[in-house]
Amino acid sequence: MMGTEDIEQLLERARFKHLSESTLVSYNDNQLDEVGQALADAHLRLCLICERRLTFLKEESEALESYKITDEDKASIKKLVGQPQPKLEEYISAELERLNSYVQEVLAAWRLPYRKLAMRGGPEGNESWEIQSKDKVFTVRTVSNKREDLTVQFSSTELRWEGFQIHFKLGSFHKDVALSRKGNRVTAKVVIPKQERPKKMRDISIKVTSDS
Amino acid sequence: MTKRRKRFSCAEADVELVERYQSGDERALSVLLEAHYGLIKYWARKVLAWADREEIMAEANIAFFESVRDFNVSEGSDFHSHARDLIRRAIYKSPEVRRVRRNLYKNHRRVVEAQERLMEKLNRRPTLEELSEDTGLSVNQVNTAINVIAAFPFPLEEADGYLTIEDPSVSHLISEAVKELDSEDSNIIFRYYFYGQTDREIGEAVSKSKGAITMARGRAIKKLRAIISGEGDPHDGD
Questions:
Q1: Which residues are within 8 A (CB) of A156 and not within 5 positions of it... i.e. 6 or more apart?
Q2: Following CA atoms A42, A46, A52, A56 in sequence, which dihedral angle do they give, to the nearest 10 degrees?
Q3: E-only strand ranges, chain A
Q4: In three state form, how does the secondary structure of A85-115 look?
Q5: What is the dihedral of CA B72, B78, B84, B87, to 10 degrees?
Q6: Average pLDDT of A140-152?
Q7: Rounded to whole angstroms, how far apart are CA atoms B226 and B203?
Q8: Average pLDDT of the residues in B27-49
Q9: Cα(A56)–Cα(B87) distance, rounded to whole angstroms?
Q10: Of residues A160 and A177, which shows the higher confidence score?
Q11: Contact status, residue B181 vs residue B189, Cβ threshold 8 Å
């Protein structure tokens, strides 16, 4: 049961929390209920950042309201719709290249003498190892459970990579998985059963391809 | 429903067009693009001071294509918000903006930290001048930082502990519980917890003594506790 302090603490802190994008959009569209509206108002009275975010949403609404499509815009749209595929393919190719550069970074780290374990006895298994790109965009984590099956988890904040295929090979084990969206990240998971874990953990390759 | 939706499109029409495009109807994409081209241009304009217009529009257009291609119509969410999210992310991550991003975000931590401190201290929105004084940055630098954070908040939202965003489940819990209170009690809760008024100030506003407000607030909190724990209003049936 929630104690009195808990609800009081929640109420005391509530107005200092920044508004989520969906709350701001609902506020701008007058879609919040009375309490939600009051809480959003309370925060907006305090916060220059959220007030500015709201200003931009209002400006966007106004810009769309007054927006008149020009001949130039029409020509651009016609050009875009007439040739969407080459542009999209170029884009996909560039994104694959980006993802691949992160993968190479991970492989380089992995192939160092298979690293000293970063943690043992963690909450999700017996051992784990993690590498994260410097910009925190791409993370790979391995977890071994009590049966010594090894799970390799790929995770990224780059939502554009949703649907990209990862072709994972470790020793003779291989598996294809797709990055799928979970909240604000895209993730994929490969589980290597104990009996298929190779002795040489450095014998690894990871390739990425698009799903299209 | 916003004016935009009345005039240009609506959520249902967006979804229908997305479904048509995903089923192979290329004309639906033209209609969607015309309806949302202003959206693309609006957010692209935010970075034109530092970036080439054509390059940014190309990135934003591709993001729009993606938003149409990948939108999950069965989720019941808003296509416009989905498109806005992808367009802004694409602009932010474009090579054009990446070039200047380090400089753009250089002062942001200081500005964010100062604004967090000042909003609690002042119990109001700090001014640009106050932030400038607190951070040692110029008013113009503070204003630019606020503009960039507001236009592209996700890098800050997604960096642990940088910006504390509301937890929707907590907001929902508070909202549902406070709705159960009568108007007098909810008024006290709004004023005290949401607007930071003291019991004395609330008493003056509603012509009651400070002591009466303190007691009423205590009772309201007790009711909220009972509502949240599922016991209902403790005074029901008195």
A1: A99, A102, A137, A138, A139, A179, A185, A186, A187
A2: 0
A3: 119-120, 127-132, 138-144, 150-156, 165-170, 173-178, 180-182, 185-192, 204-209
A4: HHHHHHHHHHHHHHHHHHHHHHHHHHHCCCC
A5: 10
A6: 83
A7: 25
A8: 89
A9: 14
A10: A177
A11: yes
The pLDDT of residue B7 is above 50: no
Contact assignment for B194 to A14 by CB distance below 8 Å: yes
How far apart, in whole angstroms, are the C-alpha atoms of residue B66 and residue B88? 13
CB of A208 within 8 A of CB of A179? no
pLDDT digits (tens, 9 = 90+) for A80-128: 777 554 456 666 788 888 899 888 888 887 766 455 444 444 445 566 7
- β-strand partners of A120: A127
How far, in Å, CA of A37 to CA of B74, rounded?
28
Residues B92, B100, A108, A114, CA torsion sign = negative
Residues in chain A: 212
Assess B78–A contact: CB distance below 8 Å, yes or no: yes
Token reading at B226: 């009972």
- Chain A contact for B76, CB < 8 A? no
Portion of chain A with pLDDT greater than 90, in percent: 25
Interchain pair A61, B8: CB under 8 A: no
pLDDT in tens, B92-129: 888 878 777 776 677 788 898 899 999 999 989 999 99
- For position A201, what pLDDT does the model report? 77
Q: Is A78 strand, coil or helix?
A: helix
Q: How far away is chain A from the Cα of B80, in angstroms, using its nearest Cα?
A: 11
Helix axes B210-229, A4-14, angle to 10 degrees: 110
Q: CA B134, B137, B142 angle in degrees (round to 5)?
A: 90
Which of residues B236 and A159 earns the better pLDDT score?
A159
Question: B130-147 burial, b if ≥16 CB within 10 A, otherwise e?
Answer: bbbebbebeeebbbbbbb
Residue A121 token pair: 């006895």
B2 touches chain A (CB under 8 A): yes
Whether B149 and A49 have beta carbons less than 8 Å apart is answered as: yes
Average pLDDT over residues B169-177: 86
What are the residue ranges of helices labelled H in B46-138? 53-70, 79-93, 95-105, 108-122, 128-135
* Beta-bridge partners for B53: none
Q: Provide the shortest C-alpha distance from residue A109 to chain B (in Å).
A: 24
